Amino acid sequence: MRNRRDSAFTPHPGTPASRIGTRMRGHRPFVVGLAVWAVELVVLAVAVVAFGLLLVHVLVPAGVGRLDFNIAHWFVNRRTPTLNDVTLFVTNLGSTPVVVGIAVLACIALAIAKRWRQVGFMVATMTLEFIVFLTAALLVDRTRPDVPRLDSTPPTSSYPSGHTAASVALWVGLAVVIWSLTRSVVARTIAWILAVAVPLAVGLSRMYRGMHHFTDVAASAVLGSAAVACALIATRSAVAAHEARDGATVSPPQSERPLQRAS
């Protein structure tokens, strides 16, 4: 019987995840999920890199660059000592140590509770986001805004914003996990408020501090969301394969077996 608390990871009949899992039921669920994850990784990386190159070489010269320039200077003109301190705290919420630390603690807690679907989902989400971000940053190599920066410049390029993408992947991923574990309206509401508010604040702080263009942050929000969606499909595909294997190996109950004719 399906666990209702894992409903977010239960594939619905007729969906791509259900069809993939059914067709690959001869393989271990982990292998199915990993195969789907790998395909999604390639597709997402190609899409993000392609958009980045289009942005830098076509859209920016065509006028988007002026939009980014105006927004960057708008933030600079509104800097204050207080906002500098606030945005420093907020931008650190999207830093690698904080994001990785929260993700690891969440996975440890889920593993202790033996919520393996949720663990796999979180690992798939965060690894997808990180690998695609790093690939795009290396291949697109966009320069950062030409304004005074409040943070030291990291070796990666302006596109995409790793802080923003990681924040979206982490907090939206956690909201999906919480949604799957509880029916509490309060808990679910708080989870989704954080899933929207924290990444939004991080993205704004990165622009305020002169570290990223507006288009970098917007594209990164899409990247983080896509990582969550792809990880959800991969997890559901693995679950579908597991359920298909169980259905193929478990014999029907005695009451459902056909009666034999008496000789």
* Low-pLDDT windows of residues: 1-5, 248-263
Order of helices and strands: HHHHHHHH
Give the total of beta strands.
Answer: 0
Cα shape: globular
* Number of alpha- plus pi-helical segments: 8
The percentage of residues in β strands lies in under 5%
Helical content stands at over 70%
Sheet of most strands: none
Structural class: mainly alpha
Radius of gyration: 22 Å
- The mean pLDDT is 90
What report would you give on this structure?
73% of the residues lie in helices and 0% in strands. It has 263 residues and is mostly helical. α4 (96-112) packs antiparallel against α5 (116-140). The protein is globular and about 65 Å long. The chain is built from eight helices and no strands. Mean pLDDT is 90; it is low at 1-5 and 248-263.
